[in-house]
């Protein structure tokens, strides 16, 4: 069964504007599920954000390692948000994806949904000769996950669900400036590294090409048809 999903590339957009838009679409789906007389669409949003740190609802503020004054001087925004997980960074060169879909239609629970998101990125990286995998007990996509001292995250995942409707999603480091991760304990983890496609391949990667590959892998893994 193919699932019809509206795909939108929002390009460069502030985190606040993207969050507001997500909430609007999210509520429309929830209202549509409550009232069988209403139809509703599902969405996959791609975008890039200016420099921003976001802290999940169960996150610890001490994982932001810089003062407010320093953060403002570096022009990095900061939001406490309603997804799971701890602190992460978004910025230029990073593909952020927000699936706003009804998991009941896909017959997926939250854990299976996250597994599918990870699979999308793992398959994308394989197209570029990068072998990635999962790290037991820690959500996301990792390089050298089997090497305790060398494991490094290339894609963070944090989601919110209500009535099996999803929002928030993944942050995939393509050409991301990794220095911004030095100012946080990414996802609350102190003993693991962070990486990007650019770092792993030793060259800048075509951002739009990778984004299109991710979109194609969503088609494969979730059986989506984009409208």
Notes on the protein architecture:
The chain has 227 residues and is of the alpha/beta class. Helices cover 30% and strands 31% of the residues. It has helices at 15-34, 68-73, 103-106, 110-126, 197-201, 207-222, and strands spanning 3-12, 43-48, 52-55, 77-80, 87-90, 94-100, 132-135, 138-143, 152-162, 165-173, 193-194, 224-226. The strands form 2 sheets. Strands 1, 2, 6, 7, 8, 9, 10, 11 and 12 form a 9-stranded mixed beta sheet that branches. The longest helix is centred in the N-terminal third of the chain and has 20 residues, at 15-34. The chain is globular, with a radius of gyration of 17 Å. It starts with a strand and ends with a strand.
Mean pLDDT: 95
Tally of strands: 12
Q: Approximately how much helix is present in the residues?
A: 25-40%
What is the radius of gyration? 17 Å
The parts where pLDDT drops under 50 for at least 5 residues are none
CATH topology: BirA Bifunctional Protein, domain 2
- Beta fraction: 25-35%
Into how many domains do the coordinates divide? Answer: 1
Overall geometry comes to globular
**CATH class annotation:** Alpha Beta
Compressed to H and E, one letter per element, the order equals EHEEHEEEHHEEEEEHHE
Structural class: alpha/beta
Biggest β-sheet: count, sense, barrel?
Answer: 9 strands, mixed
- Please report the distance between the alpha carbons of the first and last residues: 15 Å
CATH homology group:
Bira Bifunctional Protein, Domain 2
Number of helices: 6
Return the CATH architecture: 2-Layer Sandwich
């Amino acid at each position: 069964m193919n699932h019809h999903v509206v795909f939108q590339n929002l390009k460069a957009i502030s985190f606040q504007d993207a969050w507001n838009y997500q909430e609007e679409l999210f509520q429309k789906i929830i209202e549509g599920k409550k009232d069988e007389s209403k139809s509703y669409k599902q969405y996959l949003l791609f975008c890039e954000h200016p420099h921003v740190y976001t802290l999940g609802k169960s996150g610890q503020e001490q994982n932001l390692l810089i003062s407010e004054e320093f953060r403002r001087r570096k022009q990095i925004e900061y939001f406490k948000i309603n997804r799971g997980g701890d602190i992460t960074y978004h910025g230029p060169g990073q593909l952020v994806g927000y699936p706003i879909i009804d998991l009941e239609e896909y017959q997926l629970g939250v854990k299976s949904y996250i597994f599918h998101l990870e699979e999308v990125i793992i398959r994308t990286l394989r197209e570029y000769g990068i072998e990635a995998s999962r790290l037991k007990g820690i959500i996301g996509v990792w390089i050298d996950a089997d090497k305790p001292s060398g494991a490094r995250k290339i894609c963070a995942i944090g989601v919110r669900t209500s009535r099996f409707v999803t929002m928030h999603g993944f942050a995939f480091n393509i050409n991301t400036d990794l220095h911004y991760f030095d100012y946080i304990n990414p996802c609350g983890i102190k003993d693991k590294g962070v990486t990007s496609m650019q770092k792993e391949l030793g060259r800048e990667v075509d951002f739009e090409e990778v984004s299109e590959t991710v979109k194609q892998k969503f088609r494969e893994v979730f059986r989506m048809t984009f409208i």
